[in-house]
Amino acid sequence: MKTDISKLNIPKNFKILFERIKSEHYEELYEKESDGTVLLADDIEEILISLSDNHKNNKNFTHLCYLWMTLILTLVAQPTLRYYQPRNLLPQKIINVLIYKIIEIIDNNSISQSYNIPEFNPKKFSNHTLKQQFYIEKEIVNFQILDEALDVFYNAIRVVNYDQAVEAILNILEDCLEGYAIFPGSHGRRELFDWWLLDVVPSSYNLLPPKIFYVVEGVQNREEIKSHQTLLLKTVSDKIRHLITKVELTKRNKNIFNNFHQINRMSFPDSRKIYQSKIPQLTNDR
Fold first, then answer.
1. pLDDT tens for each residue of 244-282
2. How many domains does the chain have?
3. Per-residue 3-state assignment (H helix, E strand, C coil) for 204-248
4. 259 versus 81: which is more confidently predicted?
5. In this structure, is residue 263 part of a structural domain?
6. How far apart are CA 113 and CA 100, in angstroms?
7. In a domain, 261, yes or no
């Protein structure tokens, strides 16, 4: 994936970090050039922590970035579960929960009922996820495929809790980049990682859809899947921007309104000092 890091819409410290990581080789990605001295998990964690460091004064925005990244990754892993467990409705419910949480953080009063959000109980979702491992509707070459795809959604639930978000995303990325949640085998691992590094991370920082939505070559209805998932992300991203604009406008108007009343109450405590009526009767009444 050829991307000019200098042109990415991210802070300078991110660009420096990305340049360094882009030049590394990782044993976990089956790269022959790797000498095993650099651990993939360490560099991924550094990126996730950097997302937080760039929003030190805004925990909510950091959480939005983590949730947005998780939403993208669950949408990439979703086709795996749709193939092996087409009647499993849990992945879509968890995707809806992520969308719900994103909107709730921005403006709790603007949560759309159209997302069909179930009563959120992390333990209930976790138990349900584990139970899904015991049935398969299509022949599977390696049970690891299903196990790690389900694990993506199990950890996606944990990202809803800010304090668990980094650890949960690390697990998700292990399932996707090193594991079989998206595709089995060793071929194409570096390409998938570069897509995450150079497209998903900047997109998460800016709460935008990735420029290219990753779908494995050879997947049935590949273009249809890519189009559907991209449209969903764009719809939610547009909703985010609309809500942020609305919230900022509401706050601005509220400040103006409060300042207006403050001026009326405090700037002119005694109007008689400013204006004396020319009508004697009114002057005497004062």
1. 888 888 777 766 555 544 444 444 344 444 334 444 443
2. 1
3. HHHCCCCCCCCCCCCCCCHHHHHHHHHHHHHHHHHHHHHHHHHHH
4. 81
5. no
6. 9
7. no
Crossing angle of helices 143-159/90-106, nearest 10°?
20
The full DSSP string for 45-96 is HHHHHHHHHTTTT-HHHHHHHHHHHHHHHHHHHHHHHHHH-TT--HHHHHHH
Determine the Cα–Cα distance for residues 181 and 252; give it in Å rounded to an integer. 45
CB pairs under 8 A, 24+ apart, for 9-17? 9/202, 9/205, 9/206, 10/201, 10/202, 10/205, 10/206, 11/54, 13/50, 13/53, 13/54, 14/50, 14/54, 14/201, 14/202, 14/205, 17/46, 17/47, 17/50
pLDDT digit string (tens) for 141-167? 778 999 999 999 999 999 999 999 999
Interval 39-57 mean pLDDT: 90
Would you say residue 61 lies in a domain? yes
21 touches 190 (CB < 8 A): no
Measured CA to CA, the distance from residue 207 to residue 23 in angstroms comes to 26
- Taking residues 86-112, report their average pLDDT: 84
- Cβ(47)–Cβ(21) below 8 Å: yes
Helix (H, G, I), strand (E, B) or coil at 264: helix
In a domain, 16, yes or no: yes
CA–CA separation, 232 vs 209, rounded Å?
9
| Domain membership of residue 57 as a residue range | 5-248
Q: What is the pLDDT of residue 137?
A: 73
Asked whether residue 284 carries a pLDDT value surpassing 60, the answer given is: no
